[in-house]
Design goal:
single chain; 358 residues; alpha+beta; 5-stranded mixed sheet; 10 helices; 12 strands; binds adenosine-5'-diphosphate
């Protein structure tokens, strides 16, 4: 009784099959299928519309028909990975229509298995992302131009305010003017950091975030950064127990940027007068650097997302653009290192990154 209530009617295999066929045929998404030799076995009407080939034209043909020349290697590797059980989900690439035009797509591929669980082919859902890509490119171009345009007047303002600040410090008389100038200078520095983040973001998007690799003593670098951060951040107790020389090959100013970003975040997201501790620890051929705070912490489900572009745990936080961690992780990746967070809400966060020792 109970059994039939859960499974009101068991359908015959052919009924299930015809329902599936109906779903595939009526789908607005282009659904295609191939066997393991990359020969096309399925081609729904949405795929006909997207690629310009009819079902009759493509069945039995190689999938290479719709793959642009420069993407053929990528497809071969993809099929190898799929055969090894890897998943392909929303992968951005390019495909070619019957008329030869090449366009941007996002593809998701799932294995098709027989009754014995053996993979006998793959089904692919293809989304045309041409418009989306155009908008993304326009956004990146706009951000990059805006950031460049903003930087020039800002540099001038900063130079003027610094020269006034030096003058008033020498005179040492007008304390009000001095504190006002200090404020202007601090705000201009914040603007400078935000604009630099925007510029770095567009460099990453266009693959132009270049690194200048050279030998670096990481221990010395951490000490220098901590000293600088103590000067601009009097509200937190920043600690680092210096170690022996740590030799790595890296881009010194980019690693400094990562450290500054992690310490600034630790300060931004933890109560005043709490402690921020930096640690360096050797792990075989790597060095692990940790920045530990006693702040609000990050919920477990958000911990992966915070490294995404523009992601902020609290939306519309006025503390930045949500780019700092994204850029930091890209910099660490460019050094073939890893970056991750361990955190408990209400207890604090530890941001770690690794770099290779020489
Ligand atoms: P931004 O600080 O500009 O928002 P980030 O990329 O540096 O951008 O950080 C992304 C988000 O991660 C922040 O908005 C914040 O919600 C969270 N976050 C980063 N560092 C910490 C930290 N030390 N403690 C708690 N939350 C943090």
């Amino acid at each position: 009784m109970l059994h039939s209530a859960i499974h009101p009617q068991s359908k015959t295999e052919s009924e299930v099959q015809s329902r599936l066929d109906f779903l595939v045929r009526s789908s607005n998404d282009a659904i295609t299928g191939t066997d393991i030799n990359r020969e096309i076995t399925l081609w729904n009407p949405a795929a006909e519309k997207l690629y310009g080939y009819t079902e009759e034209e493509v069945l039995g043909q190689s999938i290479d028909l719709i793959v642009p020349k420069e993407r053929k290697k990528e497809v071969l590797k993809m099929f190898k990975d799929l055969a090894n059980g890897k998943l392909v989900s929303d992968f951005a690439t390019k495909r070619m229509r019957k008329d030869g035009t090449i366009f941007d797509v996002a593809i998701t591929i799932s294995p098709i298995k027989n009754d014995f669980g053996q993979v006998i082919g793959f089904s692919t859902i293809t989304r045309d992302i041409t418009e989306h890509k155009k908008i993304e490119d326009l956004k990146a171009e706009f951000l990059s131009t805006a950031a460049h345009e903003l930087r020039t007047p800002l540099t001038t303002l900063k130079l003027i305010s610094e020269s006034h600040l030096r003058k008033y410090k020498k005179l040492g008389k007008d304390q009000i003017k001095l504190s006002e100038l200090n404020l202007i200078n601090t705000e201009l520095s914040k603007l400078n950091l935000l604009i630099n983040d925007l510029l770095d973001d567009s460099r990453i998007e266009t693959g132009k975030l270049y690194m200048r690799f050279a030998p670096v003593d990481l221990n010395r670098l951490i000490q220098t950064v901590v000293r600088k951060m103590k000067v601009i951040n009097k509200n937190h107790n920043i600690l680092y127990k210096k170690s022996k020389e740590i030799s790595i090959i890296g881009d010194v100013s980019r690693i400094e940027q990562v450290l500054v970003n992690l310490i600034s975040n630790a300060a931004k997201y933890s109560p005043i007068f709490s402690t921020i501790t930096l640690r360096s620890e050797k792990l075989n051929d790597k060095i692990k650097v940790s920045v530990i705070d006693e702040g609000q912490g990050i919920p477990i489900e958000k911990q992966k997302l915070i490294f995404d572009r523009f992601y902020q745990v609290k939306e519309k936080s006025n503390k930045g653009f949500g780019l700092g961690l994204y850029i930091s992780k890209e910099i660490v990746n460019a050094h073939k290192g890893k970056m991750w967070v361990e955190s408990r809400v209400g207890k604090g966060s530890t941001f770690n990154f690794t770099l290779h020792l020489i």
